[in-house]
Amino acid sequence: MKAYVSSVGFTAVADHWGKSLLDIAYEASTAALKGSPRVKPQQVFVGNMFSAAGAGQEQLGALVADAVGLAGVPAVKVESACASGAAAFNLAYSLVKGGVIDSALVVGVEKMRDVEPDDITRVLTLAESSEYTQFVGASFAALNGMLARHYMEQLDVTRDELSSLPVLDHANAVSAEHAQFRKAITPEAVARSGMVADPLRLFDCSPVGDGAAAAVIVNDKAAGTTKGGLVEVLGGRIATSEFSMYGRDDMLRFRATEDSFREAMQQAGLAQSKLDFLEIHDSFSVMGALSLEAMGLSKRGQGGMDAKQGKFDLNSELSVNTFGGLKARGNPIGATGVYQIAEAYLQLTGRAGANQVKGAEFGATQSVGGIDTTSAVHVFGRAA
Amino acid sequence: MGIQHWRIRDRYYRLMGNRCEKCGAEFFPPVYRCKKCGSEKLVDADMPRTGKILTYTQLHEPLPGFEDQSPMFIALVELENGTRVVGQVVDSPDDSVRTGAKAKAVFRRVQVDGDSGQILYGYKFVIAS
């Protein structure tokens, strides 16, 4: 059985002060459902990390299903920190591909702005050990700061090289209508931005914002009823690693991403060189560099240097973060993985506008929870 | 945090991790199964209190409850038995906090649980000369 994305929908990533979590989840879901008018999803999967902390709401599966007129179908929320949306998609994909169900609606949603501004750091750190990381005052940014220093010191990576990833993201976001920050930045601007967790500065870090993205996924049985615009899901895999970064012998090796990428590409039967584009999880610049290296797209310590030399620019050898990635499109946590998948869909159906990767046939998305604690990779191809 | 802290106070007060009875590997935080040999036979063991900084950061956006200490140094310390602990570095000149520096665990107040709550104690690190 083959599995396809038959339509997608999303809101812009922004500060949606006037809208609730359900408002934006509904908006994205409805847009996706309208693109597949004859599909009635048999199950709903909602990717979300902290709706309880922000919106004071749980049981999002049933909440969203009811709102979109699907009350009655099985509906669940899936949580894997920043990889929640991709994890939700992966479960839907597995069931649809295996023929357990024929269609599903996947929605990723996060309302970061509903969390009090002075509490968002704590909420984001919920993904790390409560007892041994949060308790001592180490935030998620602090862990990334320590990782970045380790990376730079051990592998002789420069400030400028690390900056080239946010610079790339911002360059691609300029023409991306749904991106949160549509403004180009320079390496100098990154190096001048405020210090967050030394050596990481504000422009190394993905922003706070709200967003929802949705996809309808179908197998051969339901695909016949769609209007076209199918993108095949060629492979998809979640992998996990030792929970805390500091429990790993080599902290600069992202094993979950290595495993999920390798296995998803094997399922797809695709050589890495066939990929035309890749959406990576660069919640912090150092995460982006280590992700590229884990997937074998850059040599160890070379992720930033390769970006600096233009290897990942739009329509270069391999286009990376074609709509701005986590830094500039934005990173509404539980929604991010589904934004990446929606972007892959736009690329492979030729609807990416100014951000189109010319002749794109194959692309992949990588979404990470924690510091490569959970990694979900999906591989997509233009449907024959 | 009060009840969670109380439950594992010895971990915080004494840097008590555990040791595999079969292969002797030591762990902090403690593990349920030995990461080296897979054995479930583990006993509590206090960790050495000295080690060296593997990496560190100076954090400018503190977690709630740590605002009065911002910016604060947080380090990943590799203890003499090879286990790794994340903790705050205090009472040390800024320029002494660097990769490779020797660090020593000290007993300190870590958090206050709310406005009128319990004071939660635990480990922090100082740079050892």
Largest sheet of chain B: 5 strands, antiparallel
Number of strands of chain B: 8
- What structural category do the secondary elements of chain B indicate? mainly beta
Model regions low in confidence, pLDDT < 50 over at least 5 residues of chain B: none
What is the arithmetic mean of pLDDT of chain B? 95
Overall, the morphology of chain B is globular
Elements of chain A, N to C (H/E): EHEHHEHEHHHHHEEEHEHEHHEHHEE
Number of helical segments with 4 or more residues of chain B: 2
In total, how many beta strands of chain A? Answer: 12
Estimate the helix proportion of chain B, in percent: under 10%
Structure commentary:
The complex is a heterodimer of chains A (384) and B (129). In chain A, strand 11 (362-369) and strand 12 (374-382) form a beta hairpin. Chain A folds into 2 domains: 3-117 and 209-231, 3-Layer(aba) Sandwich (Peroxisomal Thiolase, Chain A, domain 1), CATH 3.40.47.10; 118-207 and 234-382, 3-Layer(aba) Sandwich (Peroxisomal Thiolase, Chain A, domain 1). Chain A contains 15 helices and 12 strands. Chain A has a 10-stranded mixed beta sheet with strand order 3-2-4-7-1-8-12-11-9-10, sandwiched between helices. Chain A has a two-stranded antiparallel sheet with strand order 5-6. In chain A, 38% of the residues lie in helices and 19% in strands. The radius of gyration of chain A is 19 Å and the shape is globular. Chain A has 384 residues and is α/β, with parallel strands linked by helices. With 129 residues, chain B is mainly beta. Chain B has one domain (2-127). Chain B is built from 2 helices and 8 strands, in the order H-H-E-E-E-E-E-E-E-E. In chain B, the strands form 2 sheets. In chain B, strands 6-5-4-7-8 form a 5-stranded antiparallel beta sheet. Chain B has a 3-stranded antiparallel beta sheet with strand order 2-1-3. In chain B, strand 1 (16-20) and strand 2 (26-27) form a beta hairpin. Chain B starts with a helix and ends with a strand. Chains A and B meet through helix 5, helix 6, helix 7 and strand 5 of A and strand 4, strand 5, strand 6 and strand 8 of B.
